[in-house]
Amino acid sequence: MSDTRHDRGWATLTRVNGTDDPKVVRRVAELSPDLARMIVEFGYGDCYADRPKDILDEQQRQLVTIGALAATAGCEDQLAVHANVALEVGLTADQVVEALVHALPYVGFPRTLNAIEAVRRVFERRGVWPDGGSAPISGG
């Protein structure tokens, strides 16, 4: 692996997103290549790839991210991205939901309900459901 921040960040981003073409970076780059570069270099190069793995592993990092995004109004799209990443790094649907339930007394019902809906869309798209069940039929 190259030792540039961008290369480390890109390698981490594509691995945890499960794709060689992360939509978020591509869409941001259409409007601001600089912002896309910052996401890759700072977010995934400095804050993710270069942090000690023996303190927080990838799953723990995603649980922290899910809690932080649930606490921040208007971040449902990013929460959906990170719910998907959480599944990619090995968390279960049950663990993602439990993180949101645990956040409830700190973030409140409205933000938790918005977060659950963002996560639901990811689960339905991926065909996963808590307790090993399957997503209900649409509209049900």
Structure characterization notes:
With 140 residues, this protein is mainly α. It has two domains: 1-51; 56-140, Up-down Bundle (AhpD-like). The protein is built from seven helices and no strands. Helix 4 (58-71) crosses helix 6 (93-107). The protein is globular, with a radius of gyration of 16 Å. The model has no long low-confidence stretch (mean pLDDT 91).
State the gist of this model.
The chain is an all-alpha fold. The protein is built from 7 helices and no strands. It folds into 2 domains: 1-51; 56-140, AhpD-like (Up-down Bundle).
Kindly name the structural category.
Answer: mainly alpha
- Topology as H/E string? HHHHHHH
| CATH third-level topology of the largest domain | AhpD-like
Q: What is the CATH homologous superfamily assignment of the largest domain?
A: AhpD-like
Whole-number total of structural domains: 2
Outline the fold blueprint.
Layout: H1 5-17, H2 23-31, H3 33-49, H4 58-71, H5 76-88, H6 93-107, H7 109-126
Helix pairs in contact: 1-3, 2-3, 4-5, 4-6, 5-7, 6-7
Q: What distinguishing features does this structure have?
A:
single chain, 140 residues, mainly alpha, AhpD-like
